[in-house]
Write the structure tokens for this entry.
Amino acid sequence: MLLKQSFYDLSYADLERVIHQNNLNHSVASVLFNWHYKKKENTQCLDKMAKCAMDFFENNFDFSLPEIDRVHESKKDRTVKFLFKLTDNHKVETVLIPFHNKYSICLSSQVGCAMNCSFCFTGTQGLKRNLTTSEIVGQFLQAWRWLALNRSGEERILNIVFMGQGEPLHNFDAVKKSCDIFLSKHGTSIGVQKITISTAGYIPGLKRWSEEIPGVNLALSLHSPFEEKRNELIPINKKYPLDEVLATIDEIPLRKKQFITYEYILIKDFNDALDDAKKLGTILAGKSAYINLIPFNAFPDSDYQSPDVDTIEKFKEVLDTFKIPTLIRTAKGDDVLAACGQLNSKN
Ligand code: SAH
């Protein structure tokens, strides 16, 4: 028997095409998107739809979603980490990060990751495979439903960040289509300014940004302004060096008041000296930049350590002299290994 295509792999435009090709009433597209993405129902669509259209979708499409295998709730700050089991038994993680009874969701884009960054737990897994669009969108829908069941009234996921497992630009097509679905006015209707994709600096994907995902926010994992040091942290820097990455990013048009976020993990005695801060300030000065300083989050067997608070603050003070807005990020969910770089679904 042929495997059915997942309904959640279809963008709104794809769905309209299917409907047109099968001579169904065009209104079916908005009815289905409304049911599955706006109301986020997990049953067959019961809204007004001709029986033939209902049968067509029932017979030809799969409506199942990734299964929640385990849920870890942080005792410290209400962060929730989900372990999802996919149909081929691979697992990925998704994190809900709370802010004022609302949430950001941190989505995974791949099982494991090919980038092999020296400071990241996911990298130790290697790349197993890309996620499909339905597996990406499915993380969002399942997390939303979990909130509706377990924290009723709090099912408000207002921001989407592609900062979970994987390099999103290395799986561009599926990530792009999931953005199309999140943005659709017929469904979740998330604003483009609420979606952020984080990259290690994968230039082929950055080159597609302006044309294919315009307006989506970009975060670059920068971590060192020196090419040699960055090579050590992010091996892909040898192929796509930082100066070329920054030049490619500069080509991407920004909305009014839009910033590029530059993420900088602070690692004790490696990239936390005042010279690092000065060089970082120098290369970013004058850009529409926002810096997130992330003290290194430890994971089992990790080699690095986080600097002390004093060093972190001194680093920020240097950046302040360059007039670049800088935020020191406090870790959320680190008690359940849900913070940046702690995601690993091997076990
Ligand atoms: N591959 C993408 C997205 C995943 S990582 C990227 O590289 O941007 C999301 C963020 O967490 C990145 O900024 C990454 O550098 C950071 N991160 C990874 N490991 C970390 C760790 N151990 N401590 C703190 N931040 C980490």
Observations:
- Residues 115, 119-120, 163, 167, 198-200, 221, 263, 265, 294, 296-297, 340-341 surround S-adenosyl-L-homocysteine (CB under 6 Å).
- The chain has two domains: 10-62, 67-336.
